[in-house]
Every structure is written in structure tokens, then in C-alpha cells.
Design brief:
The chain is α/β, with parallel strands linked by helices. It contains ten helices and seven strands. The model has no long low-confidence stretch (mean pLDDT 94).
Length: 250
């Protein structure tokens, strides 16, 4: 029989992905919109019009598994996501802490809260080619809105810390001491590399790295170059069609 905490977290996943009221996806780019489709939402293949996350159930399940593992193994550190959109993943991180009565870890919410940086002047050609900043009318969610989303779940408190700004500016001086879960969702080469360079050294041995958009050439190249430059050989696990993760062993 499921415990109250397990039932709560399951309901949070359904609410954050809005599989309950089943909002239609947004017509982004060439994406064909024909109403809500459960399979698409489950795998995080649509951009919801209302739901607070677009990552889907599969990636939320993996995130919970990682958080549960570091708690069971007493791996020190906080949880962070770099690139939060409407805040759904970070809200789930905070709900996990609440469900398990964990008061000595924090959730760091890192984002520009303006969307994707202007890729016309990007330092890497793959970022220019990606052109995701054209979707900033959807991707740019204000810090006020994200804070309000936390409040709707009664989860905005002193265990939630916001890091506002472009990653190249905010992360080098971020007062993060140690991390147990590092979740990257910056899409761009620059954003991914900025997060890795500044935050990976703070990831405890036994902690997890989760990369949301490894399918994108820009993100994938940043991951490959960083791992090679730092001699990281930890086994990569494919979570779903776009996301990967690995556990730091040294």
C-alpha cells in the first residue's frame, strides 16, 4: 500500500504535468497541435499551454529516483535546476523535501526569467543555428510568475532560493556550497557549459547530473566537451528520447 508521501508526490506529478485537466499544447514551430495527447505529455513531447512543466512524467520519475537515492545514501548537498520555465521541476523538488520532512536541503531556482539569450550574437555556432530565442514569448516566464506558482502549492519558503540572471553572470558568484542533484535545462551550448563549469565542482560524489535536452546538438556538444576535458567517464543513462543522466563517482 502506498504511503501518504508517495500518494502526495504522485498527485504532484499529475498536477504539474496537468494530466488531470489535460490542457492542449501550444503551437510551437512546426509542431502540429490536435488537442491533448496523453502519450505526448507522458514523454514530455509537447509544450503545455497551462501545465507548470513540460518535462513529462518519465523525467519526473527519474528525478524522484535520484533525489531518493542521494537521501538514502546520505549524499550531502542541495538540489538545483538551471533553466526552470514555469518552475514545475523545482516545485516538485521542493515537494519531495516536504513529503520526506527534509529541512536541511534547499532548492535553487536558476533562470534568467527572460527566456533564452539572444543567439544572434552567440559565441557558439550551434547556438546561433538553434534559434530558440524566437520562442521567448513562451519560454520567458517572469520570476514573479514562478514565485506565484510555488505559492499555489504552498511551497514557497526559505528552502527555495532564486538565482536570477544569465548563467554567465549569476552562477560564478552563486552562494551554492554543495549539490546532490544538478539538473540542466539551458538548451544552449553556452548555458550548458556555464552551468557545468560553475556548478559541477560543487556536486558531491554520489550526486546526480541530469541533462534535459541532450538531444539538441548544442547541449550535446557542451556535455561531451566538458566530460572529456575533465576526464569524466561515469556511465551515461538515457532517461527518455531527449534526457540523460549520470552519477558522479569521483
Amino acid at each position: 500500500m502506498s504511503t501518504g508521501a508517495e500518494l502526495y508526490l504522485d498527485l504532484m506529478k499529475k498536477t504539474l504535468t496537468n494530466t488531470i485537466y489535460q490542457d492542449a499544447p501550444l503551437p510551437i514551430g512546426q509542431q502540429q497541435v490536435d488537442g491533448y495527447q496523453a502519450a505526448q505529455r507522458e514523454k514530455g513531447r509537447d509544450w503545455p499551454s497551462v501545465a507548470h512543466t513540460m518535462v513529462g512524467r518519465v523525467r519526473l520519475d527519474y528525478l524522484e529516483r535520484c533525489m531518493r537515492q542521494v537521501v538514502e545514501d546520505e549524499v550531502p548537498g542541495d538540489f538545483i535546476e538551471t533553466g526552470v520555465w514555469r518552475g514545475g521541476v523545482c516545485i516538485f523538488m521542493r515537494s519531495f523535501l516536504r513529503a520526506n520532512d527534509i529541512t536541511d536541503r534547499r532548492v535553487w531556482v536558476a533562470d534568467s526569467f527572460q527566456g533564452i539569450p539572444d543567439t544572434n550574437g552567440a559565441s557558439h555556432p550551434l547556438d546561433v543555428k538553434l534559434g530558440l530565442d524566437n520562442a521567448n514569448s513562451v519560454l520567458g516566464v517572469s520570476i514573479e510568475q514562478v514565485r506565484e506558482n510555488f505559492e499555489r502549492y504552498d511551497l514557497l519558503d526559505d528552502q527555495v532560493v532564486f538565482l536570477e540572471g544569465w548563467f554567465r553572470d549569476s552562477l560564478p558568484t552563486a552562494p551554492v556550497r554543495s549539490l546532490a542533484v544538478l539538473r540542466l535545462d539551458g538548451d544552449l551550448y553556452e548555458s550548458t557549459m556555464d552551468a557545468l563549469v560553475n556548478l559541477y565542482p560543487k556536486l558531491s560524489v554520489g550526486g546526480f547530473v541530469i541533462v534535459d535536452d541532450h538531444i539538441l546538438p548544442s547541449c550535446r556538444q557542451a556535455i561531451r566537451e566538458f566530460r572529456e576535458a575533465n576526464g569524466i567517464t561515469d556511465t551515461i543513462e538515457h532517461i527518455d528520447w531527449t534526457s540523460i543522466g549520470w552519477r558522479r563517482t569521483g
